[in-house]
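Recall the central idea of this unit: under ordinary conditions, the amino acid sequence of a chain determines the structure it adopts. In this exercise we apply that idea directly, starting from the sequence alone.
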Amino acid sequence: MKLIVGLGNPGIQYQWTRHNAGFIIIDNLAKALNLTNKETKFSGEFIKTKYQNQDIILLKPLTFMNLSGICVANFINFFKIKLEDVLIIHDEIDLDFGRIQFKNTGSAAGHNGLKDIFAKTNTNNFARLRIGVGRNPNFSTVNWVLSKFTSEELARINNNSELFFNAILSWVDNNNLNNLMNKFNNQKF
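Accordingly, the structure predicted from this sequence is:
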């Protein structure tokens, strides 16, 4: 079983913020796969489905970003998911807007959602799909990630959903991160 986690904050006020890039990608993937059977468990909204005969769970932790680890650890333990079968999708200020990047291991680089997941699972050995949101020198980091995408930025994300889907579903098919990094890390949306 594969667990695909999109990080974000619940609530309408956070819906289109940069910090919710993971939620946006998960919602778009569910829509593209015509999945509507959302359930709630362990403070997370999830859809369990099959893709290419592989069981997958699409998960959005509803614990707010800084407490994402509670939900993720509960799903890993309850469904007995191997760490190599977990992909975390999150916003990344250290990547220019429009870039994606697979990464494995390493620090949280100040991302509080990742920090909490690492703390609650006692490891940082997770595959990650980083969604570049860039930085803005006129904003503090917190204010920037909690600011909303512009309509042009949202259009770029939504109009290039196929790139995200190809990256995610390639990971589901074959989670060899070296191959995925070579294929996707220089691509832009």
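The first helix runs from residue 21 to 32.
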